[in-house]
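Support reply, case 0932

Customer input (verbatim):
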Amino acid sequence: QVQLVESGGGWVQAGGSLKLSCASSARTFSRYLMGWFRQAPGKEREFVAAISWNAIIWSDGINYADSVKGRFTISRDNAKKTVYLQMNSLKPEDTAVYYCAAGSTASGTSSSRYDYWGQGTQVTVSS
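Our regenerated output:
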């Protein structure tokens, strides 16, 4: 069983930045596909970003939803077993609960490709 714990959420004004972190208990963290998803009130959970263990997947192993490209950056530190999501130029529509997820496959933007989920961290962006 892999545990994921998110942190770094909070309240920020539009145009501001936040950095989310997700610490994993996985023994072989470096071999997991790591993703960030979000769910706004009344909406379905949606893909935000993912980083593969395989750098030949996507572009350097990273994929973003179109809505966050150029504003969000996903990264991972395998030694710390942590994945990050740097969020810049935040907009009110980025308000959601953000979830970290881990999968044993090399790629995937669908939630069905991920096996483990964190509890989520709230991000609120005010206009």
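We compared this against your earlier run and they match. Two observations from our side: The chain has a mean pLDDT of 96. The longest strand covers residues 96-103. Please reopen the case if you see a mismatch on your end.
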